[in-house]
TrEMBL record:
Organism for this UniProt entry: Oceanobacillus arenosus
UniProt pathway: Quinol/quinone metabolism; 1,4-dihydroxy-2-naphthoate biosynthesis; 1,4-dihydroxy-2-naphthoate from chorismate: step 2/7; Quinol/quinone metabolism; menaquinone biosynthesis
Catalytic activity: isochorismate + 2-oxoglutarate + H(+) = 5-enolpyruvoyl-6-hydroxy-2-succinyl-cyclohex-3-ene-1-carboxylate + CO2
EC number: 2.2.1.9
Protein name: 2-succinyl-5-enolpyruvyl-6-hydroxy-3-cyclohexene-1-carboxylate synthase
Lineage, opening ranks: Bacteria, Bacillati, Bacillota, Bacilli, Bacillales
Length: 583
């Protein structure tokens, strides 16, 4: 068998096994050494290819698809620094638990370390940020080697999706010539002929659940306490909200729901959901009044810094962190008991095992009263010139059902935490909160839009600038993406921090004004641009964009100093109203 046929059958069997294992999408960064894999992906009838030139953008785009679909997505590039440009997204997917299959083409072994062009050390390039690495064998087409390449494909998909999902890296060395021959017969079969029984690649993986005895021990511990809170941090399981709110309703305890928990929106009951806790836990006196006797947290650590203060001040409180599979997410260092069980099943099992608990209902009512006061103030008033908080409030008012919001880090996610109040609308809120960076936002949001439902990206000006290449995907594939661009000409979050007191160096090092007219960038990528000056204008423009196809960017312009004063005014009013009621 000559080289081209060997290359074709080896690569085709790998791609076909990915498809049989459930992979439906591949993001390809064009290059030469990856030619065999790239052409084979595009030739396979059952996989959708997305072609993006910028590797950093492509990797975040793939991550956006995977985050939205909750399935592993393949990501392919050529050798050299192309692979290095995937690194930021791989770090993010590692920490945010998103399944990626990172496939890097490489020079064959004889061309490594000898000065050959476009050859870098790609073996274990991503270190511990991938769940598993495998250096693939050079192509062969014997039945044993075709079986090998299929096994590696199926195993890679399983590892990427099992337990805590994450990236898996496969490195493919290829010798020239690189072009496969798709005129060959039966290239998608392991031997090139005959029937193929797919048996050994199938993997069945169940959910973790506590035993009856473990449930008894847990509920016995909880039954000795009267005041408790459930905390729901970032997570993406669409079944979780119904399960946790049902449990909290029967137990009579509050739920502190992060905007990324998927608990603030949807058709489930929200009577016990406390969404404005960040606004009033800023006050130390109020935090003392709300001291719990136990805390149960599902999902990652919430966005709120106020909640972090609350947690640190209650180190003596019995605390539980629920992880679906494994992991240790407890940055406070508090004495915390970890429970490794599927969150939805645990809520159901706790309800079945102990449907009623004798908890202090007055404690719940205190939380609900404070939450009502905070919500009333957060909904109150309309400024002549739109504020950043009003922008988020207006978006939540008009966002369509069954859409998604992809929120930038720094200031936008914090405004979402404050101003995204509970709603019966069903929509998903996503963000790259693994490493909390601003990079890759537009690419991630555009990737999420490939699932078909509209996506709204909420971006600051720095996040927008950092990933303008991400607009190409929306343009090229005519994705339905609306971007709410909150432009405060710099890093607005730093104006809330102590660095703002350093007037000499603040603007250069932290404020970092860009002074860019983003309208030109939007036009360059074929998008429609609008500038909103009031909340009413913004809502009208957003509504119009949701009814139309393609890329829309709606910008609001704010002043960082005025933004700080406006936010602090809201928080101060909330604190005063709550404390006045306690006099």
């Amino acid at each position: 068998m000559e080289h081209t046929e060997i290359l074709t059958r080896y690569t085709a069997n790998f791609v076909d096994e990915l498809v049989k294992s459930g992979v439906t999408d591949v993001v390809i960064s064009p290059g030469s050494r990856s030619t065999p894999m790239a052409l084979t992906f595009t030739e396979h009838p059952s996989i959708k290819e997305w072609i993006l030139i910028d590797e950093r953008s492509a990797a975040f785009f793939a991550m956006g698809i995977a985050k939205q679909t909750k399935r592993a997505v393949a990501l392919l590039c050529t050798s050299g620094t192309a692979a290095a440009n995937y690194f930021p997204a791989i770090v993010e997917s590692h920490y945010s638990r998103v399944p990626l299959l990172v496939i890097t083409a490489d020079r064959p072994h004889e061309l490594r370390g000898v000065g050959a062009p476009q050859a870098i050390e790609q073996v274990k390039l991503y270190g511990d940020y991938v769940k598993e690495f495998h250096e693939m064998a050079l192509p062969e087409a014997t039945p044993e080697m075709l079986n090998y390449v299929r096994n590696k494909a199926a195993h890679a998909v399983y590892i990427a999706e099992e337990g805590n999902p994450g990236p898996v890296h496969l490195n493919f060395p290829y010798r020239e010539p690189l072009n496969p021959d798709f005129s060959l017969d039966a290239i998608w079969e392991p031997t090139g002929y005959g029937d193929y029984e797919r048996i050994h690649q199938v993997s069945l993986d169940g959910r973790k659940r506590l035993t009856t005895k473990q449930l008894e021990l847990l509920t016995e511990k909880l039954s000795t306490k009267k005041k408790g809170v459930i905390v729901c941090g970032p997570q993406v399981d669409e079944d979780f909200a119904e399960a946790v709110t049902t449990l909290a309703a029967h137990w009579g305890i509050p739920i502190l729901a992060d905007p990324l928990s998927q608990v603030r929106s949807g058709k489930h009951a929200k009577d016990n959901v406390i969404e404005s806790y960040d606004a009033f836990l800023r006050n130390a006196t109020i935090r003392k009044q709300l001291k719990p006797e136990f805390i149960i947290r599902f999902g990652a650590m919430p966005v709120s810094k106020s909640y972090l203060f609350y947690l640190k001040e209650n180190k003596d409180v019995m605390q539980f962190a629920i992880e679906n599979s494994a992991g240790y997410r407890e940055p406070t260092g508090n004495n915390t008991e970890f429970i490794f069980a599927d969150a939805v099943e645990l809520c159901k099992d706790l309800f079945s095992h102990a449907p009623e608990m004798d908890f202090n209902l007055a404690f719940l009512q205190t939380w609900k009263k404070m939450n009502y006061i905070a919500k009333t103030e957060l909904l109150h008033g309309a400024e002549d010139q739109i504020t950043e908080g009003e922008a988020v409030r207006g978006l939540v008012d008009v966002i369509p059902e069954n859409s998604s919001v992809y929120v930038a880090n720094s200031m936008p996610i914090r405004d979402f935490d404050t101003f995204m109040l509970t709603t019966d609308k069903s929509f998903t809120v996503l963000a790259n909160r693994g490493a909390n960076g601003i990079d890759g936002l537009l690419s991630s949001g555009s990737g999420a839009a490939t699932a078909g439902n509209p996506v709204t990206i909420v971006s600051g000006d720095l996040s927008f600038f950092h990933d303008m290449n991400g607009l190409l995907a929306a343009k090229h594939y005519q994705l339905n993406v609306t971007i709410l661009l909150i432009n405060n000409n710099g890093g607005g979050i730093f104006s809330f921090l102590s660095q703002a007191n350093d007037k000499k160096h603040f603007e250069a090092l932290f404020g970092t004004p860009l002074n860019i007219d983003f309208q030109h960038a939007v036009t360059m990528y074929g998008g429609e641009y609008n500038l909103a000056n009031t909340e009413a204008e913004l809502k009208e423009m957003l509504t119009k964009s949701f009814q139309e196809k393609g890329l829309h960017v709606i910008e609001i312009k704010t002043d960082r100093t005025e933004n700080v004063d406006w936010h602090r005014g809201k928080w101060q009013t909330i604190e005063q109203e709550i404390l006045k009621g306690k006099e």
